[in-house]
Design brief:
Elements: H1 4-8, H2 15-26, H3 30-46, E1 63-67, E2 77-84, E3 90-96, E4 100-105, E5 114-118, E6 128-135, E7 144-153, E8 156-168, E9 173-186, E10 192-197, E11 203-207, E12 229-233, E13 262-265, E14 270-275, E15 282-286, E16 292-298, E17 309-310, E18 313-314, E19 333-336, E20 343-348, E21 361-365, E22 370-377, E23 382-391, E24 396-401, E25 407-411, E26 416-421, E27 440-442, E28 447-448, E29 452-455, E30 467-473, E31 499-507, E32 514-525, E33 528-536, E34 543-545, E35 551-557, E36 560-566, H4 569-575, H5 588-591, H6 596-602, H7 630-642, H8 698-703, H9 721-733
Antiparallel strand pairs: 1-26, 2-3, 3-4, 4-5, 6-7, 7-8, 8-9, 10-11, 11-12, 12-13, 14-15, 15-16, 16-19, 17-18, 20-21, 21-22, 22-23, 24-25, 25-26, 27-28, 29-30, 30-31, 31-32, 32-33, 33-34, 35-36
Helix pairs in contact: 7-9
């Protein structure tokens, strides 16, 4: 039947003419129209059309990150500094953790990058990790470059501050043989190692406590060493016997038992510091331990309390404030670990693009990949109004400013970003209940809606003994992308509008009954992955949306009451990252079981030509399959529980080892490698994996720990005894001299 409006547009005398025009179509083979209808019907049957999540969200964040230099690829970047040339040109100096220092023009279109100094070649620069660089404030008149780094010598860790001289400052050519050491001190982790020149012309350096988590040696309140401190050096007027001098107004320059370089102390791991552009006061981010991430204002002689205190909170009751200052300086702001877990200190905004940020302190979190800003009242010396600014796809590691005061964000596993205004959106409220998402036609029984499919995987991660029920949905339009070149082992890439639901349930005793605790939902909305958690009601009829920050609540499972952590959205985003294409277990090797993949292909869920190739990727071993080899089971266990962080530039990239099961064991960088920050108790004998010695293996010790030092870091409150036994048995079976440690990042 013709649409009524179209019929009205023709005079009555023209109806016969129109009919004759359409007659040829009637004679066409019926299979054509039937095929079109069948294809559309098939897609409607296999695709999720009742999506009520698209366009939902909370208050939109005001800013977004855009790639600043698309032509510049970085590899584990840590620092970025701007330098002016004599002819008005400007260059950025880029520092990479295990690579070196390079330069590129301050031009968003540039693809030109040249190496100035490398720390990865030759015996002299082996096993060094760069953290920060600073040009002398009188450059190029004083053509000095200061570098902070950590080096391993015979297994011992040392932090160093060294100085290089430019052989040709105008060409930014550095003499690699000009190295002069200013300071060196032992550090077994929590290195600090930021450098900044203050408005007074002095070089300030941060040092961490150099210790294992929890500061077992109580280093924090000791002032007979350089650890856990801010150092202040006059490098422009060196002494005859050392390339710096202690300024006369350093607080304890005359004390015999306090190093004269110390400016302040009682810090845990100060990472990235900066000076207020007007007052010249020092602000920094200090990584906390169990519960808090800290923004600090550091003044002459201040004691910040670690490890008697974690921020303003007592940490170890047996400790007292010690050293030359027994008065506690509290942070100006504290973030609980439900908001962030690895603070990255920033800078005060001085630009003009975002007037609302004027004078606010901008900082971020490596773990959650989020940017924040904080208001600072200099008259009252108080901070207020912490706000989230933007979400990034990569781990924040440092900040820089261009000549206009606009902020650049350096990421450790991705590009350098600039900030831009986020597009204006008017999101509708997030569905308050699981039943309102459109994922289930009958929520109480988890009956999936049309186009929503259950699926199972080969190797489950530990979830405190709970069972996991999984569903996914593909929206109409583009299908799943299962082939992606060198990344084909990673998760399939879901098309826009797709979603996953992961329901966690606990069995009631030895019965077949169970209690659902939560359903975690992740959905792709206009290219962005969003994360939600729904807490099941006691009557199991539906599940209610958990607050953005998550919550910890008691849950009744039969006669047993357990405390359960319902993750916040930032916690979910910490594991589901770009490096794994977000959906951790949605991969060929995980889904290859029975006819599951063949059913997905038959349903037309993939983009044409992008179907998976199961024949090229054997099914991942079930760690609990007794018929499989011990090695395959253990490697699969570590892969599903740990490799989402411990992979190439993943969240665990700072630990310099990977646990992806497809790597040869020698390529993981874990065997016989010393942990950067080991748990106390075994000292220098500890290794990430000590072949033949599970008792000396940091992986085993972290698995057996619950609390802030546990591994995996989130998602579990109980030790996996069976998994722990498996990994212990596997490590015991490894020949002690089987492999030597090798970083997968080294060439």
């Amino acid at each position: 039947m013709l649409p009524h409006a179209l019929c009205k547009s023709f005079p009555n005398c023209g109806i016969d003419l129109l009919r004759r025009m359409l007659m040829p179509l009637v004679g066409m083979p019926m299979m054509l129209s039937t095929g079109i209808l069948t294809a559309n019907a098939a897609e409607n049957e296999t695709r999720w059309t009742d999506n009520r999540l698209t366009g939902t969200g909370g208050e939109p964040l005001p800013l977004r990150a855009v790639v600043a230099f698309p032509g510049i690829e970085t590899n584990r970047a840590v620092d970025l500094d701007l330098v002016d040339g004599k002819n008005g040109e400007r260059n950025w100096l880029l520092t990479e953790l295990t690579g070196g220092i390079s330069a590129f023009p301050d031009d968003s279109e540039t693809k030109e990058r040249r190496t100035l100094l490398t720390f990865s070649d030759g015996e002299k620069f082996r096993n060094q990790r760069l953290y920060s660089i600073e040009l002398h404030p009188d450059f190029p008149k004083k053509a000095w470059l200061f570098v902070s780094l950590n080096v391993r010598v015979d297994g011992e860790g040392f932090n160093r501050i060294v100085r290089f001289t430019f052989s040709d400052p105008d060409a930014l050519e550095i003499d690699p043989d000009s190295e002069i050491e200013l300071l060196s001190w032992p550090s077994a982790g929590h290195d600090g190692c930021d450098l900044k020149f203050g408005p007074d012309g002095m070089l300030y350096a941060s040092t961490g406590d150099g210790e294992s988590p929890g500061d077992p040696a109580n280093i924090g309140q000791k002032t007979d060493n350089l650890l856990g401190s801010i150092l202040r050096l006059d490098v422009s007027h060196p002494e005859p016997d050392r390339p710096w001098r202690a300024p006369d107004d350093n607080p304890w320059v005359t004390f015999k038992n306090v190093p004269d370089a110390i400016w302040a102390y009682g810090l845990r791991n100060p990472w990235r510091m900066n000076f207020h552009p007007e007052t010249g006061e020092l602000f920094l981010g200090d990584n906390g331990d169990e519960n808090w991430e800290l923004v600090r204002r550091v003044t002459r002689g201040s004691n910040h309390g670690w490890s008697a205190y974690e921020g303003s909170h007592p940490f170890r009751l047996t400790n007292e404030l010690a050293g030359p200052n027994a008065e506690l300086t509290t942070p100006i702001w504290e973030h609980p670990h439900t908001e962030m877990r690895s603070i990255i200190g920033g800078c005060f905004y001085r630009g003009t693009r975002f007037p609302e940020l004027k004078g606010r302190y901008v900082y971020g979190c490596y773990f959650t990949r989020k940017l924040w800003s904080l208001a600072w009242d200099d008259m009252a010396k108080q901070a207020s109004d912490a706000r989230r600014l933007a979400d990034l796809d990569h781990a924040v590691v440092s900040f820089a400013e261009d000549r206009d005061g606009e902020i650049l964000v350096v990421t450790h596993d991705g590009p350098i970003y600039r900030l831009d205004r986020a597009p204006t959106t008017n999101p509708t409220p997030i569905p308050a209940t699981l039943s309102a998402t459109g994922l289930f036609s009958e929520t109480a029984s988890l009956q999936p809606a049309p186009g929503v499919r259950p699926y199972a995987i080969n190797a489950e991660a530990w979830a405190d003994g709970a069972e996991v029920v999984r569903h996914f949905a593909v929206a109409p339009g583009d299908g799943i992308l299962a082939r992606s070149g060198e990344n084909e082992r990673k998760s399939w890439q879901m098309s826009d509008g797709g979603a996953f639901a992961r329901t966690i349930r606990q069995k009631v005793g030895d019965s077949d009954a169970f209690v659902r605790l939560e359903t975690q939902v992740m959905h792709k909305d206009h290219g962005e992955w969003k994360f939600l958690t729904y807490r099941w009601r006691a009557d199991q009829s539906d599940a209610d949306l958990v607050p953005d920050s998550g919550e910890t609540q008691p849950c009744q499972v039969g006669d047993h009451t357990l405390s359960h952590r319902f993750p916040g959205r930032a916690e979910c985003a910490a594991c589901h990252t770009q490096r794994s294409f977000f959906a951790l277990a949605f991969s060929t090797e995980q889904l290859q079981r029975e006819e599951q993949i063949a059913d997905f292909v038959a349903a037309g869920l993939f983009r044409k030509g992008q179907e998976p190739r199961p024949e090229q990727f054997p099914a991942l071993t079930d760690p609990h399959a007794s018929t499989a080899s011990l090695d395959a089971r253990a490697r699969a266990y570590l892969h599903v529980n740990c490799a989402h962080c411990h992979r190439e530039t993943g969240l665990g990239g700072r630990a310099q080892f990977q646990l992806l099961h497809w790597l040869d064991l020698a390529e993981t960088g874990a065997v016989n490698a010393r942990p950067l920050v080991g748990l106390p108790g075994i000292g220098e004998n500890g290794r990430v994996i000590a072949p033949g010695h599970p008792e000396l293996s940091e992986i085993v010790r972290r698995m057996a720990t619950r609390g802030p030092n546990q591994m995996p870091l989130i998602g579990s409150d109980e030790v996996d005894k069976e998994g722990l036994s498996l990994v212990r048995e596997w490590i015991s079976s490894l020949p002690e001299a089987q492999v030597s440690a090798k970083s997968p990042d080294q060439k």
